[in-house]
């Protein structure tokens, strides 16, 4: 009886300790988070459902309210400013993106122009709106360039001429210079804002540019570096080192026949490692350029291995055949859930890096004439 009683006491003590520990963790987390309240009115709505949501790589949240006349109130806890989205069941694809902070926020807009609703109370959102206007003024210039490139491949032409492609590449390079300057100017103005690391992540992590990511991140203040996206950039830089300049990445995946192919088996040649997918429109538009490079330099010692983010084998193989991609192709058909994609920190396709004959990375994301120029330097100095 005594031993049983002692055992029960011990169990009770362990259980009580666990409960106290869990409660302490809960209270610590609750203290870190602060309340927000959103009050708003969307003119033109009647008996509608209004949705508030946030969804990114590590955090997902959704709330909704029923509104008779377009008025609504949301409240909750938030640790730090985060990008949120507001939409309704009566505005179809129209949404409002805004930075929410743990403060009192007001939103007023119209059903017909929800994306232009006025958000007050969030200092981070003021900075974000400023950036959004800058970004749109630059991004809007890209549309006509893509249209001209598309028209150049019509009337029976398979590929744009070298001259037409150069005009496109030069135009995109000019926009890239403008964008980089705009990012640096914004960060200089808002070094402590959580919007600044969000922009760095969006521009230089999602579309990999390690050099610009490092340069712009160094300009951030301590608060911004410790924000949600600041921490993600730090983690990305750790992962990106695996495919950065001077790294020697390696992997092994199955080809279309089920045979294992190892990247390091291609050493001795310059190798382009290209992450793509059949559903990726920019990838498919870039494929003719890669095909042309392969034809020009393969006999000189240039090889390619394409890693597909497809999940359907039939679609993958059909795209390979349609685009005339005659080099090595591998995939685990897991899409974005691929362990290799996560290990190498691939955030967008197309993404590529060029290896030297020893398997070391010497360049990344060479597209258009930039790929040909680099290969000419290597094979035709």
Automatic annotation (TrEMBL):
Its main location: other. It comes from the Bacteria. InterPro entries: AhpC/TSA, DUF4369, Thioredoxin-like_sf, Thioredoxin_CS, Thioredoxin_domain, Thioredoxin_ResA/DsbE_sf. The keyword Transmembrane helix does not apply. This is Peroxiredoxin. GO terms for molecular function: antioxidant activity; oxidoreductase activity. Keywords: Cytochrome c-type biogenesis, Disulfide bond, Redox-active center. SUPFAM superfamilies: Thioredoxin-like. CDD domains: TlpA_like_family. One of its GO terms (biological process) is cytochrome complex assembly. It is found in: Cell envelope. It holds the Pfam family DUF4369. Gene3D superfamilies: Glutaredoxin (3.40.30.10). Residues 242-381 form the Thioredoxin domain. One of its GO terms (cellular component) is cell envelope.
């Amino acid at each position: 009886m005594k031993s049983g009683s002692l055992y029960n006491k011990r169990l009770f003590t362990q259980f009580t300790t666990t409960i106290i520990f869990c409660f302490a963790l809960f209270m610590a987390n609750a203290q870190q988070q602060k309340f927000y309240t959103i009050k708003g009115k969307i003119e033109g709505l009647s008996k509608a459902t209004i949705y508030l949501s946030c969804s990114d790589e590590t955090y997902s949240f959704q709330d909704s309210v029923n509104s008779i006349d377009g008025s609504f109130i949301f409240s909750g806890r938030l640790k730090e400013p985060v990008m949120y989205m507001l939409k309704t069941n009566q505005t179809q694809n129209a949404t409002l993106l805004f930075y929410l902070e743990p403060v009192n926020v007001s939103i007023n807009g119209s059903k017909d122009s929800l994306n232009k609703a006025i958000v007050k109370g969030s200092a981070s959102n003021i900075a974000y709106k400023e950036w959004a206007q800058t970004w749109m003024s630059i991004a809007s210039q890209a549309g006509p360039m893509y249209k001209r490139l598309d028209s150049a491949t019509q009337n029976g032409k398979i590929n744009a001429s070298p001259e037409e492609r150069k005009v496109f590449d030069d135009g995109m390079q000019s926009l890239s210079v403008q964008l980089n300057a705009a990012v640096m100017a914004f960060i200089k103005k808002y070094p402590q804002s959580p919007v600044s690391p969000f922009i760095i992540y969006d521009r230089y992590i999602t579309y990999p540019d390690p050099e610009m990511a490092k340069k712009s991140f160094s300009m951030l203040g301590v608060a911004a570096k410790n924000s949600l996206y600041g921490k993600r950039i730090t983690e990305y830089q750790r992962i990106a080192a695996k495919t950065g300049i001077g790294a020697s990445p390696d992997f092994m995946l199955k080809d279309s026949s089920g045979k294992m192919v190892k990247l390091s088996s291609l050493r001795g040649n310059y190798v382009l490692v290209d992450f793509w997918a059949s559903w990726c429109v920019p990838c498919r538009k870039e494929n003719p350029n890669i095909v042309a490079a392969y034809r020009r330099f393969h006999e000189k010692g240039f090889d390619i291995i394409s890693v597909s983010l497809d999940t359907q084998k039939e679609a993958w193989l059909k795209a390979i055949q349609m685009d005339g991609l005659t080099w090595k192709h591998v995939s685990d058909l897991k899409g974005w859930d691929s362990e290799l994609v996560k290990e190498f920190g691939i955030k967008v396709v197309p993404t590529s890096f060029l290896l030297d004959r020893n398997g070391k990375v010497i360049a990344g994301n060479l597209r258009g004439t930039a790929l040909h120029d680099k290969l000419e330097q290597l094979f035709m100095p």
